[in-house]
Hints:
Layout: H1 2-22, E1 36-37, H2 48-81, H3 100-129, E2 138-145, E3 148-153, E4 158-161, E5 163-167, E6 179-185, E7 190-193, E8 201-203, E9 209-213, E10 219-225, E11 237-243, H4 245-255, H5 265-276, H6 279-282, E12 306-307, E13 312-313, H7 316-324, H8 326-329, H9 342-352
Parallel strand pairs: 1-10, 2-6, 5-11
Antiparallel strand pairs: 2-3, 3-4, 6-9, 7-8, 7-10, 10-11, 12-13
Amino acid sequence: MRLRGTLLSLGFRVCGALCALTAPAFAEPAGLEYPMRRVAHIFQPLSRPAEMISEAAYLVSLICLGVFLVVAGLLVFIMIKFRRRAQDDGREPPQIYGSTNIELAWTVIPILITVVLVLVTSRTIGEIQNMKMPEDALKIRVVGHQWWWEIHYEDLGIVTANEVHIPVSSRDPAQATPTHIVLQSADVIHSFWVPQLAGKTDLVPNKTNDTWLDPYETGVYFGNCAEYCGTQHANMLLRVIVHTPEGFAKWVASQKVPPAAPQTAEEIKGHQLFYGYACINCHTVDGTVAEGVFGPNLTKLMTRQTIGAGVAELNDQTLWAWVNDPQGLKTGCLMPDMQLLDPEVDAIVAFLKTLQ
Length: 356
């Protein structure tokens, strides 16, 4: 029994290593407060929902391994025992038809396996979906767009994009502080998936779904849209930043501080260009006439780690490239190339850098 458990654990570690090697590359900013959890697969769960799914996956994988070993073993046995021999006369061997025992075996055993898998899966889904959230649980509304995530902390008055900030919870269920996430879509079907924290949950137009996260450790966890949603589906990336309670309170406080007013001549020029062009039709800057809803809220843009829903690290170079021509970083994204002159791009970037 102990040997079987050791072999199974080794097999999952190998699978996990392969997943990590083939996982997409994510931009990693400098000076992070928390570690980067770059393993984007279910076999290293760090949240209660992910642990439930992982345990079910262990059983499913063990059953599949057993089926594979039986089928492969029988195949090898037959190939060896009934291989062509030098003394064969070339005639077809006796054929056996209508074996009731064999037919019962290959009918009843798969049915029993299927029933077990259905029961285990149903129990896991039920436990996750029927989990009752505490009344004081942090509630977040996530809206999927082509191809970015809009994130609302409605009780806190915060709107951000592509990065979900939550406090760490506890392994002790009695002390757990889960985060309740309400999922909606603004256009097509998307799927919210952070493998180390929870399973996939679809965002369906005109329907509200929900999920929850209960992380045990701080860090930056990687996720993505898991439902094909158009040209840039693969670049609809997501980060969940899990803070200490003190760190989360600090983040909330920083998000509520209004950005500083433009000071330099270039920042003021960029401010004028931003509000003079079509930028305000798509983007919001809190406390101003910019109230667009088609693109991400830019009020605290420079507090984020990435740009373009994770397509690149947010820094001076990538911000300039994005303003100059978003299609160069994310072909097919819905932000058009405004055909700006280089000095105009410089000025708008200078203004955007004040949004922090």
